[in-house]
């Protein structure tokens, strides 16, 4: 057993029994590397990563490979979810070497942390056009011992490249404010949509919720992209990437048709997709599958991913009993065994594509809707509603049986940023449920969001405003990053708009104030990933691009602009946000996929962006006006911020655009007209 057994990271603990002499990232390992003049082997991954498990089994559990590692390197394991700053820096090495990034990340460093070689997965024997891991270890050991000047030269080149990539673009080609940048970005993204199967590109396929959000915004403005958005949302729901028994989405599909996923389920994907499907359900209420995804995803998150403190766990693994997807897949015989009769098993198999030959490994089948339910119902001479009446109890039986299987490992750490994303997703789910006429679901979503946010503010935010990133087994640790501050601040703003409780708005303003004081780039034209008093690595990177989640930059700009619309922003907030939009404008227009969250944030800076102040003696007193605002939001072309102001007198709303406010509006219908105007559709 190595040092990782005492780690607070589930991912690092997975490697505690390796024969490798692993260290966590820290002073002990780095000091030993300097003292012994040995290179560092840095391995970065996360607990639900399938290929991380593969490389661990093939190489890190192998005694001969471990002996090579221990003799020649100081071996450091990093959980990318705990330390995204380390991951972000060293992912750039792989990009600079002309490779695709990803995990496991394998980078070799000098004792002073400068990288001189990197890659991702390395096989145990030469394959995939790559050397074996042992060949690589021997070659780099020889390089270190006999060609140190080459190592130094490569390290300096890579360090210079990292520094160039770590600083936001400064071309200042134009701000993102106004309708044309959004329309340009949407056209670019629409051109990348697979017109047959939905989603961006061919394969593998990721949900890319931030890109879809840009398309949703443009669709609200002019109606473009409806077919592409609905196609994507339906194909994802019908595919194997969606869990048809419990709800929730896997991280991505390895194929074009969304059938075969890598089965890990990440909190951030489900947080982002929950909000996307909720908004889509209001945009296209005639498509019932959108509401179903919201209901089932909320149920999955509450049942399978919620911890005792009210916050939510990070992920579940792809593998169980050492086999990828075993927990989720079925054979016809297994269906018949659980369902108890051949007719029900055959019926379920026909609907969900369970075939004797299987569509996955070992003759197993991934559940998916081979045809749209309406089409299947017509073929049977019945209705879609009647079809669902028969299917629902069968799914329930199979889910109960699945819970008896050995489940995939769950990563039980709580991450501030990912919980912030989920709080926002739950608030959007609550708003949608309220418009559907499902008050119980609306209340449940708000209760879940509120409990999680209270826990984060109570346990993850320090006395001086600093945010901590991780809670594992009740121990809060690891200094937070810009995304932790930004996502939590936005979650608080979303809760304020949903509840009109001023405490949430005040919390968001305090978090924004902290970000401006401790994360802002000199001159106020960007934000660093780390705070000014955090551990210094070889480079202090700026937040720039979206990844699988929005960038801290994009979300923080949104927070600052929304606070400014509400008149409660810290000093300098508007100027900082506009400087970011100006500085990154050219890059965002050229690369909308990479800057989708910044593009969506920019819409809050547009002159037509609205701020609605609801005034009354209490939030309850303005409830009818608040419902009117919520009902109008899906049809509004521009973005809107909402806040509450305590005031005596009859309930009223003030609608402000471009620094001009309406007279107090008391009647709900008049408020609806003020919000929608000619945009009512």
Keywords:
Glycosyltransferase, Glutaredoxin, alpha+beta, 11% strand, 681 residues, 49% helix, 18 strands
Summarize the structure.
This protein has 4 domains: 163 residues, Glutaredoxin, CATH 3.40.30.10; 340 residues, Glycosyltransferase (Alpha/alpha barrel); 75 residues, no CATH class; 70 residues, Glutaredoxin, CATH 3.40.30. 49% of the residues lie in helices and 11% in strands.
Could you explain the architecture of this structure?
- This protein is α+β, with helices and mostly antiparallel strands and 681 residues long.
- The protein contains 25 helices and 18 strands.
- The strands form five sheets. A five-stranded mixed sheet has the order 1-3-2-4-5, sandwiched between helices. Strands 8-9-12-13-14 form a five-stranded antiparallel sheet. A four-stranded mixed sheet has the order 16-15-17-18, with helices on both faces.
- Helix 15 crosses helix 16 and helix 17 packs parallel to helix 19.
- It is globular.
- The mean pLDDT is 95.
Mean pLDDT: 95
CATH second-level architecture of the largest domain: Alpha/alpha barrel
Strand content: 5-15%
List low-pLDDT spans: none
Spatial separation of the terminal alpha carbons: 64 Å
C-alpha Rg (nearest Å): 26 Å
Tell me, briefly, the overall form: globular
In the sheet with the most strands, the strands line up as 1-3-2-4-5
Count of all domains: 4
Kindly provide the name of the CATH class of the largest domain: Mainly Alpha
Structural class: alpha+beta
């Amino acid at each position: 057993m190595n040092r990782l057994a005492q780690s607070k990271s589930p991912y690092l603990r997975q490697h505690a029994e390796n024969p490798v002499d692993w260290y966590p990232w820290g002073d002990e390992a780095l000091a030993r590397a300097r003292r012994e003049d040995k290179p560092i082997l840095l391995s970065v991954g996360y607990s639900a990563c399938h290929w991380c498990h593969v490389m661990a089994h093939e190489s890190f559990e192998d005694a001969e490979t471990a002996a090579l590692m221990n003799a020649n390197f100081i071996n450091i394991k990093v959980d990318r979810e705990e330390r995204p700053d380390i991951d972000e820096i060293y992912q750039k090495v792989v990009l600079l070497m002309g490779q695709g990034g990803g995990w496991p990340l394998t980078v070799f460093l000098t004792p002073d942390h400068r990288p001189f070689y990197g890659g991702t997965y390395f096989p145990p024997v030469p394959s995939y056009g790559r050397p074996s891991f042992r060949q690589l270890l021997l070659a780099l050991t020889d390089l270190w011992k006999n060609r140190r000047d080459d190592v130094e030269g490569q390290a300096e080149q890579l360090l210079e490249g990292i520094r160039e990539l770590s600083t936001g673009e400064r071309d200042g080609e134009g701000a993102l404010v106004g309708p044309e940048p959004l329309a340009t970005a949407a056209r670019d993204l629409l051109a990348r949509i697979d017109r047959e199967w939905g989603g961006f590109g061919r394969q593998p396929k990721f949900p890319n919720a931030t890109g879809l959000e840009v398309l949703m915004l443009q669709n609200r403005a002019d109606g473009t992209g409806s077919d592409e958005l609905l196609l994507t949302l339906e194909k994802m729901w019908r595919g194997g990437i969606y869990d048809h028994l419990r709800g929730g989405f896997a991280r991505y599909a390895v194929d074009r048709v969304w059938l075969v996923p890598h089965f890990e389920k990440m909190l951030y994907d489900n947080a982002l997709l929950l909000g996307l499907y909720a908004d889509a359900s209001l945009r296209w209420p005639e498509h019932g599958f959108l509401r179903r995804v919201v209901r089932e995803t909320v149920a999955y998150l509450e049942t399978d991913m919620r911890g005792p403190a009210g916050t939510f766990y990070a992920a579940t693994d792809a593998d169980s009993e050492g086999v990828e997807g075993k927990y989720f897949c079925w054979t016809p015989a297994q269906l018949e065994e659980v369902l108890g009769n051949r007719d029900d098993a055959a019926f379920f198999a026909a609907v969900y594509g369970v075939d004797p030959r299987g569509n996955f490994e070992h003759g197993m089948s991934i559940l998916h809707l081979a045809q749209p339910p309406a089409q299947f119902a017509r073929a049977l001479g019945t209705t879609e509603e009647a079809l669902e009446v028969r299917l629902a109890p069968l799914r329930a039986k199979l889910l109960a049986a699945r819970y008896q299987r050995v489940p995939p490992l769950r990563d039980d750490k709580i991450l501030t940023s990912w919980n912030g994303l989920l709080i926002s997703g739950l608030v959007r789910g609550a708003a949608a449920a309220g418009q559907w006429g499902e008050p119980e679901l609306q209340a449940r979503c708000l209760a879940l969001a509120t409990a999680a946010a209270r826990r984060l503010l109570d346990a993850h935010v320090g006395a001086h405003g600093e945010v901590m990133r991780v809670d594992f087994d009740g121990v809060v640790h690891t200094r937070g990053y810009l995304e932790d501050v930004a996502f939590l601040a936005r979650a608080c703003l979303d809760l304020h708009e949903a509840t009109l409780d001023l405490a949430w708005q005040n919390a968001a303003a305090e978090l924004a104030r902290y970000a401006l004081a401790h994360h802002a780039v000199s001159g106020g034209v960007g934000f660093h990933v780390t705070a000014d008093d955090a551990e210094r690595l070889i480079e202090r990177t700026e937040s720039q691009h979206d990844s699988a989640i929005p960038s801290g930059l994009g979300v923080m700009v949104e927070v600052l602009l929304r606070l400014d619309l509400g008149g409660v922003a810290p000093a300098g907030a508007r100027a900082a946000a506009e400087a970011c939009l100006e500085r990154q404008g050219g890059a965002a227009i050229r690369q909308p996929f990479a800057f989708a969250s910044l593009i969506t944030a920019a819409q809050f800076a547009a002159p037509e962006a609205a701020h609605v102040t609801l005034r009354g003696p209490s939030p309850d007193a303005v409830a009818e006006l608040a419902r009117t605002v919520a009902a109008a939001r899906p049809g509004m072309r521009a973005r809107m911020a909402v806040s509450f102001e305590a005031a005596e007198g009859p309930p009223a709303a003030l609608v402000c655009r471009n620094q001009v406010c309406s007279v107090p509006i008391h009647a709900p219908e008049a408020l609806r007209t003020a919000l929608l105007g000619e945009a009512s559709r």
